[in-house]
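Protein record
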Amino acid sequence: MGRDELLGSLAGTVRQGARLVTLSGAGGVGKTRLALALLHRMADDFDLSAVVHLADLNPSEDATTAVGQSIVTALGVADHQSQSTPVEVLLDHLQGKRVLLVLDNAEHILDPVADVVIALLTEVPQLSVITTTRHRLDLPPERVVAVPPVSIPEANATPEQARGSEAMELLLDRAAATGFPAVREGTAAWEAVVELARWSGGLPLVIELIAAQMGVLGPEKTLQRLDGGRLLATTARRAQPHHRTLTQALDVSWDLCSPEQRRLWARLAVFSGGFDLEAAEEVCGEDVLPLLAGLVRHSVLTVGGDGRYQQLQPLRGYGLRHLDEFGETDQLREKHCHWVRRLVATGAAEWFGSGELTWLARIHRELPNIRAAVNWCVATKDAETGLGIVTDVIRTRAHFFAAFQRTVLAWADDLLALEPAEPTLTRMTAHTSLAFTLIALGDKECSVHHRDRYWELARGLGAESAPQVLFVEGCHLVLSLGDTSGLPLLRQARDAFRAVGARGDGHMAAHLLSAGAGLLGVTEIADAASADLLADAESHGAPWARTWALWVLGLPAHSRPRYLLHECLPAQIEMGDRWGSTWTVEASAWWRARIGEPEAAARLLGGCVGLQQRHGVGLGGLIPFQRQRQQAERRIVAAIGAAAFRAAYTEGTRLTAEEVYDLALRPIDAPGELRADVVVAPLTATEQKVAKLVAAGRSNGQIAEELHVSKRTVETHVGRMLAKLHFTNRTQLATWYGTQGSDG
């Protein structure tokens, strides 16, 4: 209200090429609201726009990384790359795009914000940044715009003139919204309202608080409270310094609250990013609902249609100061931390079911509270609780779904730096969880560090056969090395998790067992494990898990692989699962290469590379995926030639995500089932020579003479090939070479 001229000026400044605009001003002057209005007005001028809330970032953590990750999250960029920093991810993702960012409440981390902003502005030529802060960033391209208070009535203003002021208009509007009746001109109440508008100094937040106070006290008593008991004449009034005005307005709101409401106001300040009724009851006391309603009436809290409460930063900071005065800060921080601990533990235990998507969304929504709890654990050196929180977040798989793996890894690094007095199972489990995350991201180098650490701890604890250890070892062998010896470990982990009631962990082990067997060519295991996986997902009604169960049914090692990608891909897209949808597009390319659609397969392979870049998903570090892609590429080149393959592949890389999805969802010209088509570890040059001679009917002795090696050497080569191909005799090897050997 009353910002049209300023909004127009700011929009013109940005359109004329301003790269960095800082909105400065006192607390409560409306910097955030103005920035949001500017973003809304200009959104159509940009390809991407987002507001990034920085108030809850802790200056003591790696703030540069945290700022970058906050921007990544706000823009909806899926960042699944553990090897790249958030700024590197942004630089890659934002190239060629027109982007508008609002960085809100930056004053407490000015240096990290400045570092990130200058890096982005330097490398992304079509980026514009709006910051809200009480202090400038002091960067060369910065244009500082002081956000003024809204206009207040002049001294001795007539009623008509008073109504024309922005502060008066806003005050009357907000008072009416609280149910306060219209004030008649020429009365003492009217004069008090005019004085209140002048007293506000034109700070919109103060006006909001005054409107709520009028609903309790009426205009005259409100003014008396704010003015320290002195009702001054209009002609003698002068606007107060803004910091004092806001403080006094907060003081009056505080005084108007009952002692119980004040204590709750202070206690609620430990929440970051909002809270619901159940959270408030657990952390702050059982009978809080009537008190919450009172705080909403006082404009201390706002409540959304989903029942979630929010507290503006100045109000939250005021509450935290009083929490210190009550001597309850440590106690409430501890209770908040344990609420977070129970929340994520429940999510880890219960996600595998009909509430799967609800849990994924809730864990993502509560990230600010989870961050606050982890920071408290670091500050108090409580590594056990903090690592438990991080581990359970990973167990929900929300970090894959919503792409905040880097955030979780950073939390864990801070907690693991707190050396414990002795090895603990919690610490060991944290290392297994982090190793699994890094393996799935294809980051072999970093995963090795955590594997070394959990093995060291497992031996010291006598926990070498713990299901979490078996699970990650199996994942390492299957995904990082392409070794089928990891499959029995995954099966043991699945059964062990299920035996102790860890159904979600058991399902994840079952998924990796099914996927590994289906990709590496162990038909017997693939058939049984995938049937078990689908039955498990469907019996528990878990929608996201079911899409993955459908995905594995089409993998080539099955005796009768089924093409169900048209069923799982739309569900993944609707859920917003950019991780899984990228895997599904890749699998669609493999299928089309197998059934004789080489050009479509080539475009999909290129399209999947584009998706990986947009979605931050890297499949290159997963050996089974490398083999499948190489197999598909060889088939395509054999069918249409290298030049046509490159042309179609390049065309695919230029497709939008929607075009890639449309291509993947086109009907296939093949039956729903195909014979098994095993992709194996590549044979060495010598093994290929031996396999060719076996297929030609030569005995081991004849092969030894022809290759000028010993018969024992030939027997060794044949044995290794049988193991790689999962065959039991030379006849199977000869048959396979005749049908598959030319393919690789």
User: Anything to note?
Assistant: The longest strand covers residues 48-53.
